[in-house]
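FORM 12-B: Structure-to-Sequence Request
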């Protein structure tokens, strides 16, 4: 029996990854003035991965990685003015409108009265807090947790802190490595709702094999899944 619903935020409740992709495109235009036709995606990703342990997830770390990648790709020829443009791209991401995914508000309004609800997101504290406030969804959650990374240890700490039994919890999210696998590892249920674009870092090849793993086409399918899990005689 499920009594707690945990939700990821970025690309599960609201659009996020497109912001990074659009900004990366703008960075390519700036770098392209120095090296026409330069492919920057791979170089930027390599810098991001190198910096992840130092900067963590989020826009601020991404912005610093864009600056570093631009300096590398232009062999230090990039002008201070263009570095300033890159910093401005990062700042614009911080204040971009929060666009809700389809069906999210209806589903949250429906389930938040019937289940204990917790939002678990990783990334930068300032950025995530601001997005939660701007989304207008905060009132649907009993708890909000912003963590540095989403591994089994981090989920375990969150569940302990709020006295949540993973066996009675369903985590809903778009990332297999961040939202699904760690929760399954702890004995919880997890529902994967794929998002149209996936950051390479969150890519995962195969579905986990578990009775506690569920696949949803869209957020509005959550209600059917919850009905299914409530069926008498089903041990979940
Ligand atoms: Mg996500």
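FORM 12-B RESPONSE
SEQUENCE OUT:
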């Amino acid at each position: 029996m499920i009594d707690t619903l945990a939700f990821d935020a970025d690309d599960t409740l609201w659009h996020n990854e497109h912001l990074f992709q659009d900004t990366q495109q703008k960075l390519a235009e700036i770098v392209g003035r120095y090296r026409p036709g330069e492919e920057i995606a791979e170089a930027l990703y390599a810098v991001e991965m190198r910096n992840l342990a130092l900067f963590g997830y989020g826009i601020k770390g991404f912005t610093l990685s864009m600056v570093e990648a631009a300096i590398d790709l232009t062999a230090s020829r990039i002008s201070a003015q263009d570095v300033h443009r890159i910093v401005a791209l990062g700042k614009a991401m911080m204040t971009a409108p929060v666009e809700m995914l389809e069906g999210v508000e209806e589903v949250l309004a429906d389930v938040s009265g019937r289940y204990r609800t917790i939002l678990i997101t990783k990334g930068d504290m300032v950025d995530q807090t601001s997005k939660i406030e701007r989304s207008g969804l905060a009132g649907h959650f009993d708890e909000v947790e912003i963590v540095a990374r989403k591994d089994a240890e981090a989920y375990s700490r969150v569940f302990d802190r709020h006295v949540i039994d993973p066996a009675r919890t369903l985590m809903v999210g778009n990332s297999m490595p961040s939202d699904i696998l760690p929760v399954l590892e702890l004995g919880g249920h997890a529902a994967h709702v794929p998002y149209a674009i996936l950051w390479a870092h969150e890519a995962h090849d195969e579905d986990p094999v578990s009775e506690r793993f569920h696949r949803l086409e869209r957020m509005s399918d959550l209600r059917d899944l919850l009905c299914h899990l409530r069926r008498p005689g089903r041990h979940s």
